[in-house]
Amino acid sequence: MKKMINEFKEFISRGNVMDLAVGVIVGGAFSSIVTSLVNNILMPIVGLLLGGKDFSGLSITIKDARIAYGAFIQSIIDFLIVAACIFAVVKFVNRLTEAAKKKLEKEEKKEEETKKAEDIALLEEIRDLLKKQNKTK
């Protein structure tokens, strides 16, 4: 039992678990923003395009069952907007990451070239000293 508790503590203290928790919290907050965007801005526009109908109120009643397909379509639109926003954020972060990676590679290559130049200069100096030493003998 103690081993399992220690493993759980180790699991919880990992950075990626904390990152996941932060992501879930931020995602929940972001979801409410997107839901507000869809409900208060986009859906009234879609309703106007459909002839002034309240889109979220669209439904079909079969016997005693009310099928609210307008709310379902609204949920699909919510999902698509959230997915598009996440896609845009991921693309932006990937671009930043790629740019940083290229800059780092460029700096490393420059350092490597500088080191090679220093090594060559040192080898040339040794060669010249050996030539000088051989001439004096």
Task: Report what the structure shows.
A two-stranded antiparallel sheet has the order 1-2. Helix 2 (15-49) crosses helix 3. The protein has a single domain, classed as Non-ribosomal Peptide Synthetase Peptidyl Carrier Protein, Chain A. It is mainly alpha-helical and 137 residues long. The chain has helices spanning 2-13, 15-49, 69-136; strands at residues 60-62, 65-67. The model has no long low-confidence stretch (mean pLDDT 81). The termini are far apart. The longest helix is centred in the C-terminal third of the chain and has 68 residues, at 69-136.
Pattern of helices and strands: HHEEH
Task: Write down the Rg.
Answer: 32 Å
Helix content: over 70%
Specify the biggest β-sheet. 2 strands, antiparallel
Average pLDDT number: 81
Quickly give the structural class.
mainly alpha
| Overall CATH class | Mainly Alpha
Count of extended strands: 2
Q: What is the CATH-assigned architecture?
A: Orthogonal Bundle
- How much of the sequence lies in strands comes to under 5%
Count of helix runs: 3
How are the strands of the biggest sheet laid out side by side? Answer: 1-2
| Count of structural domains | 1
State the low-pLDDT regions, or none.
none
CATH topology: Non-ribosomal Peptide Synthetase Peptidyl Carrier Protein, Chain A
Broad shape:
elongated
Distance between the termini: 81 Å
